[in-house]
Amino acid sequence: MKPKLLLDTNILLDLVLERPPFCTQASRIFRHIEQGNIDGFITATTITDIFYIIRKAQGHDLALAAIKYLLQHLKICAVDQKTIQVAIDLELKDFEDSIQLACANLSQLDGIVTRNGKDFVTSSLPIYSPTELLNTL
Questions:
Q1: Are 23 and 11 in contact (CB under 8 A)?
Q2: Is residue 121's pLDDT more than 90?
Q3: What total number of domains does the chain contain?
Q4: In this structure, are strands 4-7 and 111-113 parallel, antiparallel, or unpaired?
Q5: Is 57 helix (H, G, I), strand (E, B) or coil?
Q6: For residue 8, what is the DSSP state?
Q7: Residue 96 maps to which CATH number?
């Protein structure tokens, strides 16, 4: 059974903004998603964060194209009142990370892929760096 993994915002920005040296691993992860080896997920709030960051860095057209690309390949975890309450109860330092962890838990995902594993130290889900994930595939 292929893993269902939530991709942290930093992985998506590495891919879309081609941030060296991280974009190489992000591209490899996305190839696995495109090939059907992984089911990739993001939170609904990540979409707006990514759009905002890319629009500021590279303009509206690229931001919109990036969102369309992500929607073709990733599934969206809903962010609703229950998700937000679970996120608050997690008491992580970064609320965005709390939302992502709450979504992953509520959606019964198999783990989270991030370059900032320390941000998810209280997670009961496995947390993978891009290197760790790619080594398991």
A1: no
A2: no
A3: 1
A4: parallel
A5: helix
A6: P
A7: 3.40.50.1010
